[in-house]
Design goal:
By secondary structure, the chain is α/β, with parallel strands linked by helices. 45% of the residues lie in helices and 16% in strands.
Length: 336
């Protein structure tokens, strides 16, 4: 390329790196030679030379999940605005794959590695994530945790969270205050931070309103539609006494609504149903689902913005966004 442009190799390097001034005419000749030779910068070589590759990595369990997809949209939009390429990595719920992806992104010198979703209450797991936070920091990168708690004081990581407990507290209060005093919780996941926070809000609302919650109505499961369907069928078949169902997610709620409909249980006349997340599914089901709104896209945008500009916002590296209840037909009584 230097020969084609009639300049030295060091001049070509300066044009590509953009770190030294080069005469306008000389720069134009180098860029023209690049186009003629169809030259592409070797990202791996640049990384070995100590340069970042202008990439933001987005690490999720499942790309098909609407919860992740809407956060991903915010990440991609902000990354593009910042001149970064967004790389999507999936882990399929395997903690070991999370570690492998983060390590790979550290080697690739990604500007930020954004890990989305709840964290497991497991000390070895937390210790490994803490190790990677420091390793990324030493490499000039940044670990960003979205929708999960901080790793601890002094750990160099950006945290973008939402008021998980507050949303569950508000939803449970809404259900009980409307006269639904027997509320089942469908989809508890022991050891997962997202679930633990929602259960905490659920229990706190009962305590504040002076209503006892029945442990028999707390159903363990997963955040899937198939579990919501099966778990709801089993709860109805058990003869349990409940007047409302607070599903751990909208996907769980969608499965629960299907099961109730098949069992001839009217919603909301017989049983009120509520979810969490406010994904498009909440409007696609019948009746339309009362749920807790999470600002998904803003979480994604903030994750990128704060990580890339952490020197400008050193005191804003842990942000918690608000949540709120969206009331729809699945909890409204006739005339309500």
């Amino acid at each position: 390329m230097a020969a084609r442009a009639g300049v030295s190799a060091s001049t070509v390097s300066r044009v590509l790196g953009g770190t030294y001034p080069v005469a306008k005419e000389t720069r134009s000749r180098v860029l023209r030679a690049m186009r003629e030779l169809d030259y592409v910068v070797n990202a791996h070589a640049r990384a070995l030379g100590g340069a970042a590759n202008k990439t933001v990595a987005f690490v999720v369990d499942d790309v098909t999940g609407p919860f992740y997809a809407h956060i991903a949209r915010g990440v991609e939009e902000q990354a593009a605005a910042e001149g970064r390429l967004c790389m999507l990595c999936t882990t399929h719920g395997d903690p070991q794959r999370v570690f492998a992806v983060v390590e790979t992104m550290r080697e690739q010198r990604a500007d930020a590695v954004i890990v989305v979703g709840g964290a497991w209450d497991d000390k070895p797991y937390q210790d490994r994530m803490t190790h990677f936070a420091h390793a990324l920091d030493r490499a000039g990168s940044r670990l960003v945790l979205v929708g999960r708690p901080p790793l601890g004081k002094g750990v160099p990581a950006t945290v973008v969270d939402y008021d998980n407990e507050g949303g569950a507290f508000a939803m449970t209060t809404h259900l009980i205050s409307s006269g639904r005093r027997r509320v089942a919780y469908l989809g508890r996941v022991p050891g997962l931070s997202t679930s633990s926070q929602r259960i905490k809000g659920f229990v706190r609302a009962h305590e504040m309103l002076g209503v006892s919650h029945d442990e028999a109505l707390m159903v363990d499961g997963t955040f899937t539609r198939s579990f919501g369907y099966q778990g709801m069928r089993e709860l109805v078949a058990s003869g349990a006494d409940f007047s409302a169902v607070f599903a751990a997610t909208d996907m769980v709620a969608a499965g629960a609504l299907q099961a109730l409909r098949e069992d001839g249980v009217r919603v909301p006349e017989d049983v009120a149903v509520a979810g969490y997340d406010d994904i498009p599914t909440a409007l696609d089901v019948y009746p339309a689902l009362t749920t807790v709104n999470i600002p998904h896209e803003e979480l994604g945008r903030a994750a990128v913005r704060l990580a890339l500009h952490r020197d400008q916002f050193p005191d804003s590296q842990h942000q918690v966004f608000g949540t709120h209840v969206v009331v729809r037909a699945s909890t409204r009584r006739s005339g309500g």
